[in-house]
Each structure stands twice: as structure tokens, then as C-alpha cells.
What we know:
This protein is α+β, with helices and mostly antiparallel strands.
Amino acid sequence: MTSxxxxxYKLAPSERLKAAAEQAALGQEEIxxxxxxxxxxxxxxxxENVVGMFQVPLGIATNFVIDGREVLIPMATEEPSxxxxxxxxxxxxxxAGGFSTSSTGPVMRAQIQAxxxxxxxxxxxxxxxxxxxxxRMANEKDPMLVKYGGGVKDIEVYVIDSRLGxxxxxxxxxxxxxxxxxxxxxxxxxALAPRIExxxxxxxxxxxxSNLADLRLVRARAVFKTEEIGGHEVVDGILLAAELAQVxxxxxxxHNKGIMNGVTATxxxxxxxxxxxxxGAHAFASITGRYRSLTRYEKNRDGDLVGSIxxxxxxGLVGGATRVHPVAKTAxxxxxxxxx
Length: 340
């Protein structure tokens, strides 16, 4: 397989689909699904009060080499130039080997908020004393997840001051395996709420996932050779522009919007939750107390540009639209991924 398809942008849409299908080994049914898209009766089973369809163009970004593997990237977006820019950037990066990546485990947090507690620090200690019991209770709610190596792996408890008084917030640290995890962690949090009330003597209100997936980070790095991007002056200009995004939140917002142009397009194409990923990304960009760029750019000893990114990406292959949307299922196959 190759992601470098000569003249891909010059082809008609049907010819592009045929070329991508050959590289990704798509069958005729999968090709037909991309051509027909989501049907109205399928949409009616996904959300409430369906009246019609709002279609978004689906394109393929080419030229990507990721961890030594040729990859075609499906992207669903209404914005022109995003797919072309991604393809062009990947073309420049492949001359130095493409993108190298790493990630943490597929771990999410659920929060259980207990209020009205006179002795919040003692309550925190009491919850931690019952950690084993609470872990067992949570994992009993999803034995299948536990069977595949997931489930609650730890419990953290924080005392948070607020103008309405202290709150004791319990975090369930849950390995979600190939699921995004919202349903699993929310069910666990709901199940533990009455027991948290018994232990603390407080009243539980919120019990829900946190979309700041700071334990579910992905990282990518690429080297862009000086001659591939226009020379040393261009490298220096990129470094200066990137530095402004580190120190100025007005620039950082636009910088990160550009990053999310690509991220969101692929998240949407695969049927994942774009709002969750975007919320997590922007919260992570602010985690130091100041909103900053999600990327870093540097110059290596050869004078080449080195770009890197680290951000939370909470996506899954199990459940949600990924499993029911026919185009999303085909997009996942085009990507060639086997796990979240």
C-alpha cells in the first residue's frame, strides 16, 4: 500500500474513491456505502426528531507515513484547503521519514461531586480507605470491559474550594480499552454515588465523565527538511510565528484552531465525538493556567524544522456512531487501525 497517489487531486471523485479503495482493500459494499452515505432511516435511529440530512464532504489526505506505515487519512470537513494542507504537510514530512507517534493508555476520568460536607479532608481520607470496595463496585457494572483488561485502575479524591463551600470530588480512573468510554464511566459513577454519600455524609450531585482526558494523551513528531519547506528563512519565520502562539492567547486560539481543522475532520469521519475531543484539547492547552499552543516547533542541529504535538484524544472503535454509521466504519478501515 502507498499513500502517495500521484495526481490524486486531479481525479474525479469517483476515480479518487476507486484509487483509495484499491489501496485500502475496500469491497464493493464499502465503496457503495461511501457513495450513498448515511440513509434517513439509519439517521432516525441515531438521534432524536430527525427530519433530514446535513451532509459534509468526505475527502482523503494523502502522503502520510506514520510510524513507518503508509496511511490514507479520511477527513470530513466543510472547510476548503484543510485536506490539501494536510496532504502537502505530510508530503514534506515524509522526506525525513514521516511522523512518529506514541500514546498513553486509553484512560478516562469520571467525577463524583459530593457537597455539604463539614469535614472535607476527613471525608477524602474515608473515601480512599474504601478504595478497594469502590473499585470492585464500579467494575461489577462492566464485567466485559474488565474481561478485556479495562475497568477502574485507581481512585483519586480532591478537596476543591468554591464560593459555595468545599466540594469533595472523587475521580474514577478507568481504562476504557477500545471504547471512548463515556457510557462505561458514567454508569460506574452513577453506581458509586449512593455509597459515596454514605461514606462522606454529603450529597452527591454530578457524577459524569471529564472530557479533559489528560491521561489519554497522544504525541506526534516530524522533521521537515529545510529544503522541503523553502529554506532557512522560512524555518525561522515558522519558529517566530509558533513562539507567539506560546505566549499570546489571541494567537494561540487561531493556531490551535488550525490544528483542530485536521483533528476534528478525522474524528468526525470516523464517527467519534468531535465536541469531546475539542473540549479536551482546549482545556489541555490551558492546563498550566495560561492558554497556549498545542504544538512545539524547534530547529535541530541540521537546521531542519522539528514539530511536535501532545494532546488528549478520546476516541474509540466500540459503540457510538463508529459502529453504526456506514461511512464511519469504512473510514476506520481506510485508516487501517485495529485499536483505539
